From TrEMBL:
This is Muconate cycloisomerase 1. Pfam families: MR_MLE_C, MR_MLE_N. Its EC number is 5.5.1.1. NCBIfam families: mucon_cyclo. Belongs to the mandelate racemase/muconate lactonizing enzyme family. One of its GO terms (biological process) is peptide metabolic process. It comes from Roseovarius gaetbuli. Its cofactor is Mn(2+). Residues 149-246 form the Mandelate racemase/muconate lactonizing enzyme C-terminal domain. Gene3D superfamilies: Enolase-like C-terminal domain, Enolase-like, N-terminal domain. PANTHER family: O-SUCCINYLBENZOATE SYNTHASE, O-SUCCINYLBENZOATE SYNTHASE-RELATED.
């Protein structure tokens, strides 16, 4: 009889980690990030870890850290009890039947399943998706202090230290002309040393967006992300066809079905592919396939996850032939502290794919205990242990 490894236990916890500065988005200002950590224990003693994280509580999307945790604890974990640990596709099919939506919760569990499978097989998760074709990728930084001078100083320092030369500016909170003036100042300060892009996070009406895109392309901005609400595909299509500046879909992309709708409407030039928003690594790989088949540009997006989910994303995106617009997988750099035993490496304007089995990273147990909601808030080292 073949000995089947089973899912024994699925644990969750929320980690609250402060950000290095206020992160000002059109819909919320973040001063800390809440990441839902998932740990799956398997019957052979192996483990897998995963993360489900969103932006700004409930301001960005329909899932909150608390809803992610409760969906996993109440519905997903019991459904997967004793499931064949190697049958990731079967587990995903079951979850799609039992749990509607809740993509980020599913993502957290799915990452832990892939991580466990990779560790048991002794291969990186990228191998489970056909193998990595690259070891590093360009990585953007988001300028979102809310102040032009601070953003310029931050950008110049990032260029100087060769950490980033692609900048995404968070706009949409102020009047359109003020935002365009802000972008123009930053573009003037960095010149040709960096690529400048913006993310409006759905804040504009179509009318605002027409003025916005016209102004942005005049000042040398290369790309505008999700200028109008996610469901306004016709407006996105009009903007995509009316201006030279690239239009990227983000909030409009919640899995492969949305990807097909955006591609069919020609409602974007570029897909911001996020593993959490897609519903996991497998669904994200399907979003990528739709984008490739439609001849669209690809970009690896982030939900400002910790190094854990960032590592999982790097495993998948390392298997993609061409990421035309690079990545924004900088999540760990926005946080004041590192929860991984070995941090992800950022250098020479790139993020490097962690080497190792599974998603390629391990957690620092002291940091997990410190940042765990309801935890000790005492670092063992600080306590003299
Ligand atoms: Mg975005």
């Amino acid at each position: 009889m073949i000995d089947v490894t089973k899912i024994d236990q699925i644990e969750t916890m929320i980690l609250d980690i402060p950000t290095i500065r206020g992160h000002v988005l059109s819909m919320a200002t973040m001063r800390s990030q809440a990441a839902v950590l998932v740990r799956i224990k398997f019957s052979d003693g192996s483990e897998g870890i995963g993360e489900g994280t969103t932006i700004g509580g409930l301001a960005y999307g329909p899932e909150s850290p608390e809803s992610i945790q409760s969906a996993i604890d109440t519905y997903i974990a019991p459904a997967l009890a004793d499931w064949d640990a190697d049958d990731v596709n079967g587990a995903l099919q079951l979850l799609d039947k039992l749990v509607r939506g809740n993509r980020i919760a599913k993502t957290a569990v799915e990452i832990a399943l892939w991580d466990g499978l990779g560790k048991r097989l002794g291969v990186p998760v990228s191998q489970l998706f056909g193998g990595a074709v690259t070891t590093k990728m360009p990585v953007a930084w988001t300028l979102a202090s809310g102040n032009s001078e601070t953003d310029i100083a931050e950008a110049l320092e990032m260029i100087e230290t060769r950490r980033h030369n692609i900048f995404k500016l968070k706009i949409g909170k102020r009047a359109v002309r003020d935002d365009v003036a802000h972008v123009a100042r930053i573009k003037e300060a960095v010149g040709d040393a960096a690529s400048i892009r913006v993310d409006v996070n759905t804040a504009w009406s179509l009318q605002d967006a027409r003025w916005g895109l016209k102004g942005l392309q005049e000042v040398g901005c290369e790309l505008v992300e999700q200028p109008v609400p996610a469901r306004y595909l016709d407006a996105m299509a009009e903007l995509t066809s009316s201006y030279e500046i690239a239009v990227m879909a983000d909030e409009a992309l919640n899995g492969p079905e949305d990807a097909l709708a955006v591609a069919t409407h020609r409602a974007a030039d570029v897909f911001a592919v996020k593993i959490a928003q897609s519903g996991g690594l497998k669904r994200a790989s399907e979003v990528i396939s739709v984008g490739q088949a439609a001849g669209l540009g690809l970009y690896a997006g982030t939900m400002l996850e910790t190094g854990l989910s960032t590592a999982a994303a790097l495993q998948l995106f390392s298997t993609v032939e061409t990421l035309h617009w690079g990545t924004e997988l900088f999540g760990p750099l926005l946080l004041t502290d590192e929860i991984l035993a070995e941090p992800i490496v950022y250098r020479d304007f790139c993020v490097e794919v962690p080497q190792g089995n599974g998603i390629g990273v391990t957690l620092d147990p002291d940091k997990i205990e410190f940042y765990r909601r309801g935890g000790s808030r005492i670092l063992k080292s600080a306590a003299g242990e």
